[in-house]
Design a protein that fits this description.
The protein is of the alpha+beta class and 253 residues long. It folds into two domains: 168 residues, no CATH class; 77 residues, Sandwich (Immunoglobulin-like). The protein contains seven helices and 13 strands. The strands form three sheets. Strands 1-2-6-5-4-3 form a six-stranded antiparallel beta sheet. A hairpin with a 4-residue loop joins strand 5 and strand 6. The protein is globular and about 55 Å long. The N and C termini lie far apart (43 Å).
């Protein structure tokens, strides 16, 4: 089921600085803070390039115009859990009355529910919740959504966006180091940034996804901006070329 719905769950998206209101923020922030989930976000740069294009093909021009109306997208996925069906059942109970079921997909591999949220007669958000045997995922895309263009949008971004995400994520997993953890006043946390990721932005977020500190990423060792933070658990996030790469949780004492 997850593979059959990969064009919904794996396309590139947006994580705005202001954390625009959407289903992930309103109903699934605890999943976003869960280390079992792979998280995919991107900045508006992912769509800005398309807006500069022009085409003599009417269908392609419609796609370009549809891109300009999208405000963002977030994807949360886990692909190795024995609780996929239970997580799906629990997740589908969370959307409130503002979300209307658009369609459901059920087969031997799993289930998926597609929701839409309207705002003054316009589809403002498309939410997908799906699971397979051991896979579970949530995706939301928000803005001014043209349902006729969604499949074309995914075809445009899936391969290119995921290749870039996979490359960046692999680099982060291999080379980024955050230490010491916990961070203490006498021994504040540092981060090692590989050369391939310098120039990005380091963000410290609380477990609700709110940015509480940030710094420019430089190659090599640098101090994390944690000096003014209250004791607690935070997320260290490295944004690079429109992608947000989650490194790990950081405990500040």
């Amino acid at each position: 089921m997850i593979k059959k719905l990969s064009f919904w769950m794996l396309m590139v998206g947006i994580s705005t600085t202001s954390f625009a209101q959407n289903a992930i923020v309103d109903h699934f922030s605890d999943y976003e803070a869960n280390e079992k989930f792979t998280r995919l976000h991107a900045t508006s740069k992912a769509f800005e390039m398309a807006l500069e294009l022009e085409s003599d093909n009417p269908e392609e021009q419609e796609l370009i115009e549809a891109l300009g109306k999208i405000k963002g997208m977030t994807v949360l996925m886990t692909d190795n859990t024995e609780e996929a069906a239970a997580m799906f059942k629990q997740a589908t109970s969370r959307p409130d009355k503002d979300y209307e079921v658009l369609m459901t997909v059920d087969d031997n591999d799993g289930h998926a529910v597609f929701y839409v949220r309207e705002d003054r007669g316009t589809i403002a958000e498309l939410l997908v919740i799906a699971h397979g045997a051991k896979e579970f995922g949530i995706a939301t895309i928000w803005g001014e959504i043209d349902l006729k263009q969604v499949k074309k949008l995914t075809d445009t971004f899936t391969v290119q966006g995921m290749e870039k995400f996979d490359e960046a994520k692999a680099a982060a997993t291999r080379d980024i180091k955050v230490y010491p953890n916990p961070s203490t006043p006498g021994s504040p946390a540092q981060i090692d940034i590989p050369e391939s990721l310098q120039g990005g932005t380091i963000e410290i977020r609380d477990l609700n996804g709110k940015r509480v500190a940030q710094a420019k990423a430089r190659m090599g060792k640098q101090a994390l901006p944690v000096a003014n933070l209250s004791p607690g658990t935070y997320l260290v996030v490295l944004q690079f070329e429109g992608l947000s790469l989650y490194s790990e949780r950081l405990v500040v004492e």
